[in-house]
Amino acid sequence: MDTKKELKILFWMIVVYAAVFFMPLGNERFMTAVDATLDLAKWYAQEHVMLCLLPTFFIAGVIAVFVSQGSVLKYFGANAKKWLSYTAAAVSGSILAVCSCTILPLFTSIYKRGAGLGTAIAFLYSGPAISILSIILTARILGVEMGVARTVGAIGFSVVIALLWHLFSVRKRKPNKRNR
Q1: Which helix (H) or strand (E) is 103 found in, with range?
Q2: Where would one find coiled-coil regions in this protein (predicted)?
């Protein structure tokens, strides 16, 4: 028997018991906070998971199953032209993503299919920055010119980030002349 492990389990049991024992259930402010927490959890389960995450996992699965590795390598691979590869990744990131948490399964999907890390990073950055919903919202609130400017700026910025990533990763891999 591991005494340290058993004492740790006992400690956490006492902490949970004390938290439940001293819970201020009669306090209106506490109950309002609990209600708000449960309402938010319900909204997240109904709206965000059903409308954003499940379709994203479906799209990532479709990419993994139906998009050939050759086509991913042709446009997003190491031998593709960097500016074309990064621009295509940034534009497709803006079309496919809805929010920052839905871009991760898509990023993983294209990266595992053979896309270069710089290309996948351009895709990863551009998704939340210029999703279709954010473009529409920006255009509605600030005007069409600002919506277009945000889109062009975010695509350009994600391409620059990817190019810098490529530049620094290639530079890091090259052996130093002093170390030869």
Answers
A1: helix 100-112
A2: none
Residue 78 has φ and ψ, to the nearest 5°, of -70, -30
Task: Dump the DSSP string for 47-83.
Answer: IIIIIIIHHHHHHHHHHHHHS-HHHHHHHHSTTS-HH
Report how many domains make up the chain: 1
Backbone φ and ψ for 23, nearest 5 degrees, come out as: -65, 125
Contact 120, 76 (CB under 8 A): yes
Could you tell me the residue range of the domain that residue 54 belongs to? 3-179
Q: What is the pLDDT of residues 104-127, one digit of tens each?
A: 888 888 888 888 888 888 888 887
Q: Distance between the two ends of the chain, CA-based, in angstroms?
A: 54
Q: Which two tokens stand for residue 147?
A: 């919506």
Cα distance between residue 122 and residue 125, in whole Å:
5
Average pLDDT, the chain: 83
- Find the Cα–Cα–Cα–Cα dihedral 6, 10, 13, 14, rounded to 10°: -170
> Which segments of the chain have a pLDDT < 70?
97-99, 170-180
